[in-house]
Amino acid sequence: MTIAQWCVLAACLLPILTVGSAKASLARISRKQGGYDNFNPRAWEDKLEGWRGRAHAAQLNGFEALPLFIAGVLFAQIGGAEQARIDLLAMAFIAARLLYTWAYLADRATLRSLIWAVGLGLSIALLALG
């Protein structure tokens, strides 16, 4: 697998790890007291507040960002673009997503939006290579 393909895997796992932090933070609390509810996880996630709620929102945004990023990597590779350039853009996208998640959890809305725009630009740059 190429570095870019590993980045696709990382981008797919990052949203799961993001909300996993909220779930893990409440692992010692029973479901009835507001801890993680595996019987109804979507409703539980919708009730999260504070950084945990932002972790859930970051998870959703991470999944929303996936199609364009994956398409960008695939189009660039199928189009025969230079693999080193694809890898660099893909790694930069992962770095942007990590920073985005940090900014979301830290409640830094403006910075988060700027980082989001960088990630979008990187996905578009990958598409343009194809």
Number of helices in the DSSP assignment: 5
* SSE arrangement, N to C: HHHHH
Mean pLDDT: 95
Number of β-strand runs: 0
Helix fraction, binned, reads over 70%
Strand content: under 5%
Give a quick account of the main beta sheet: strands, pairing sense, barrel closure: none
Pick out the low-confidence regions: none
Oligomeric state, counting identical vs distinct chains: single chain
User: How far is it from the N-terminal to the C-terminal residue, by CA?
Assistant: 19 Å
How big is the Rg? 16 Å
Supply the helix-strand structural class.
mainly alpha
Overall outline: elongated
Describe the protein's topology.
Layout: H1 3-25, H2 41-46, H3 50-78, H4 83-105, H5 109-129
Helix pairs in contact: 1-3, 1-4, 3-4, 3-5, 4-5
